[in-house]
């Protein structure tokens, strides 16, 4: 999968594409249904499938005090999109200038002139552009002007259980209550976080603020850790009650002998942690 970090990264010879736009936070089962439609449309049009997404998430720039936590790190968002079979992802750095761009200008600049879109595939709740004024009707009008099709995945076909459609909001709710098993069902994979941990007092520790991805409610959780690019190791993560951004989070790697470090206090490692649904 190609990753383009700006419009300038997109090769001029890319040719026609079929595009989907969104935050794709969690790349949950609802997103996966949308991506399946994207890939099908790309095949029909003999075009490349491209996801356009943002970093940081728009709400985190516009409403930093009240914005919801990101479910996953950008690295994991990209990895999950690759698993779904997307040909390329355009990651647009979300800035005040991008936020102030009129929806019609965004479509012309990104979809038409850069990606040469033959079709656009989105969910019916799609909103974009200045003041989130862009919507399905904006896309359809642009499609008539610039000759691209618009395919909309309605809420009724977006999947879900117990009468509720899959959503990033739902993932955040169940993580806030500590139900990593339901989160796994919505995501279609174990929930993952990333962090840099430091060896201290016989365990690995980090601050809550250093964690990428959403921490669940306080408690002890079993799962699997990966140190760097090494093997997966059984592990337990301990999240204290009333954790603040400055709270210490402890990770215990369950190994016959911790190869990384009774003899090396103070060393740091980057790890990922997948929560087990049987915690």
From TrEMBL:
Documented EC number(s): 2.7.1.26, 2.7.7.2
Keyword Kinase: yes
One Pfam family of this chain: FAD_syn
Superkingdom of origin: Bacteria
Keyword vocabulary terms for this entry: ATP-binding, FAD, Flavoprotein, FMN, Kinase, Nucleotide-binding, Nucleotidyltransferase, Transferase
GO biological process terms on file: FAD biosynthetic process; FMN biosynthetic process; riboflavin biosynthetic process
Pathway(s) of this molecule: Cofactor biosynthesis; FAD biosynthesis; FAD from FMN: step 1/1; Cofactor biosynthesis; FMN biosynthesis; FMN from riboflavin (ATP route): step 1/1
Molecular function GO labels: ATP binding; FMN adenylyltransferase activity; riboflavin kinase activity
Catalyzed reactions per annotation: FMN + ATP + H(+) = FAD + diphosphate; riboflavin + ATP = FMN + ADP + H(+)
EC top class named in words: transferase
Domain FAD synthetase: 13-160
Assigned protein family: Belongs to the ribF family.
Name of the protein in question: Riboflavin biosynthesis protein
């Amino acid at each position: 999968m190609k990753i383009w970090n700006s419009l300038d990264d997109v090769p001029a010879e890319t040719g026609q594409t079929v595009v989907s736009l969104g935050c794709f936070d969690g790349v949950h089962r609802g997103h996966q249904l949308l991506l399946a439609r994207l890939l099908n449309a790309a095949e029909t049009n003999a075009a490349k499938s491209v996801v356009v997404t943002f970093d940081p998430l728009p709400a985190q720039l516009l409403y930093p005090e009240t914005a919801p936590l990101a479910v996953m790190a950008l690295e994991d968002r990209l990895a999950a999109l690759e698993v779904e079979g997307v040909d390329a992802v355009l990651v647009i750095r979300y800035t005040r200038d991008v936020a102030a761009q009129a929806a019609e200008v965004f479509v012309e600049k990104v979809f038409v002139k850069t990606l040469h879109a033959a079709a656009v595939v989105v969910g019916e709740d799609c909103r974009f552009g200045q003041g989130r004024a862009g919507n399905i009707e904006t896309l359809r009008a642009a499609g008539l002007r610039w000759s691209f099709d618009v395919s909309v995945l309605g809420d009724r076909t977006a999947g879900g259980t117990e009468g509720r459609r899959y959503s990033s909001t739902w993932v955040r709710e169940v993580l806030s209550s500590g139900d990593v098993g339901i989160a796994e069902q919505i995501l279609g994979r174990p929930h993952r976080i990333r962090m840099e941990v430091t060896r201290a007092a016989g365990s690995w520790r980090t601050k809550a603020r250093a964690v990428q991805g959403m921490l669940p409610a306080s408690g002890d959780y079993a799962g699997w850790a990966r140190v760097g690019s090494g093997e997966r190791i059984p592990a337990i993560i301990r999240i204290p009650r009333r954790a603040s951004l400055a709270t210490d989070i402890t990770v215990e790697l369950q190994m016959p002998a911790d190869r990384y470090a009774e003899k090396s206090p103070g060393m740091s490692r980057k790890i990922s942690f997948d929560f087990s649904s049987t915690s």
